Amino acid sequence: MGLTEYTLAVITTDKNMKFGGGCPIFYAEDDKDLQHKAMLMAKSVGGMVHDMTNGTLIVVKH
Question: What's a Pfam family this protein contains (predicted)?
Fold first, then answer.
């Protein structure tokens, strides 16, 4: 039995977010930048993007 699902990154427009639960936080300037950064990260690590609302996305490996 092994670890199969985990969060790889948090991408947000909220500059006040300081804690990502052990994964890196990337800050985006606006919604377009948010979507672009999340898509690039997900493609590079084979992950999926999930919307956490309020300008925050996470990249998760399933």
Answer: YIEGIA_cap
